What does this fold into?
Amino acid sequence: MAQGSYKQFCPVAMTAEVLCTRWTVVLLRELLAGSTRFNDLRRGVPRMSPALLSRRLKELEAADIIERKRGGAGGLYEYHLTRSGRELEPIVTAFGVWGQRWVESEITLEKLDVQLLMWDMRRNLDATPMPKRRSTIEFLFTGVPQNQRQWWLIVTPGDGIELCSIDPGFDVDLYIACDLRTMTAIWMGLDSVRAAVRDDRVRLTGDKTLASNMQTWLGLSPFAKERKMVA
It folds into this structure.
């Protein structure tokens, strides 16, 4: 961080030295969303190299924004926000709100990331309108590499939501077939399940209740409700 110093006493400049390095705000987004372990953080920032992730975590720890401690089964290290780190939540949220409202909304192929999309959907899925039994939902994406085409969400009441990229072996309750761009647009609030199904961009096969309630249980990006603005 010292190498990138602005050499100004202004609090804005000093804060920028800590927060405006590449990937730092995105990493804070993951920490604020509840990820604490290295591998979970990697799933939230899949295009960030492990070496850079490790370096950023050390920098945040040195800045007293996070603390590292042993925790959970196996005594693995976990990263937890300190009081100063938690105070960054409205700042990180404001980044997302501003971006949703003012940044160009076209979802380009260069910005599509199936692993990140599925990880975010798992985190925000709302199981309330789903059956009170285990539900297995398989996503089949077109236009992506073969090893990224199939994903499974397993929703078990009282036991949380699991994301799998390898067939878990359960009977599938609902198949969802679509292209990655369409599902990303739905997740971001720029499209809807109903419109995509009507236009045959999304195909739902299986449990009719799960299919009809998909827009509700899918959950959306925390910023999906923000209305686009015109400059």
